[in-house]
Amino acid sequence: xxxxxxxxxxxxxxxxxxxxxxxxxxxxxxxxxxxxxxxxxxxxxxxxxxxxxxxxxxxxxxxxxxxxxxxxxxxxxxxxxxxxxxxxxxxxxxxxxxxxxxxxxxxxxxxxxxxxxxxxxxxxxxxxxxxxxxxxxxxxxxxxxxxxxxxxxxxxxxxxxxxxxxxxxxxxxxxxxxxxxxxxxxxxxxxxxxxxxxxxxxxxxxxxxxxxxxxxxxxxxxxxxxxxxxxxxxxxxxxxxxxxxxxxxxxxxxxxxxxxxxx
Length: 263
Prior knowledge:
Elements: H1 3-9, H2 19-28, H3 37-55, H4 60-72, H5 74-84, H6 89-113, H7 118-141, H8 156-163, H9 165-185, H10 204-209, H11 213-262
Helix pairs in contact: 3-4, 3-5, 3-6, 4-9, 6-7, 6-9, 7-11, 8-9, 9-11
Protein name: CDP-diacylglycerol--inositol 3-phosphatidyltransferase
GO cellular component, one term: membrane
GO biological process, one term: phosphatidylinositol biosynthetic process
């Protein structure tokens, strides 16, 4: 892409507020963003997640219920924010941080529960954090109003993921459900009431003959988890390219200014 086109397409930042001015505004609080309804839902999610972590090692029912409600509320806060006109940068970051932390804590437990797969869970944590951090930073660097505002010419995959509410919900819910199913599978042995012993595939036949409800859910949602992490890889790669592009544009601008000063 020519340099002048890349520079023209780069949007202006929606706001330039000095850090001290921002702190003073938050202290004076002409409008209490901390108490916006969607942010109150966000605090509720944090509290429920904390309870789920407390129960995780000894009370699977309480853990599963509190964790699931915390995740389901993730689909509510954004709708409330838009309906009440209470969208905020604080709320968006609170939402993302809560998502990353709750999932990572569950993955830490799964790494202990399934030590053979610990390295995979550690990789998933690293990928989740790095891809979202890079994506958020690239959004800020290009002046985007939200990390969810992705155009199809940047990435069609990310555009479909972030701009279709149903796709976003189903992928995120399926991903979380997969991890929750793995957690529940360590606590339950009740088999599904279907005789699958007739399946004689190597390794698979014996597994299906003793399949529990939780394992069945994990099998169904596993492909969704795979898709979510493919999206994370795409997000990480696209964010890296955007940041490199911003670097190149800024270096070119610095050289232009330097050349003009020499005239």
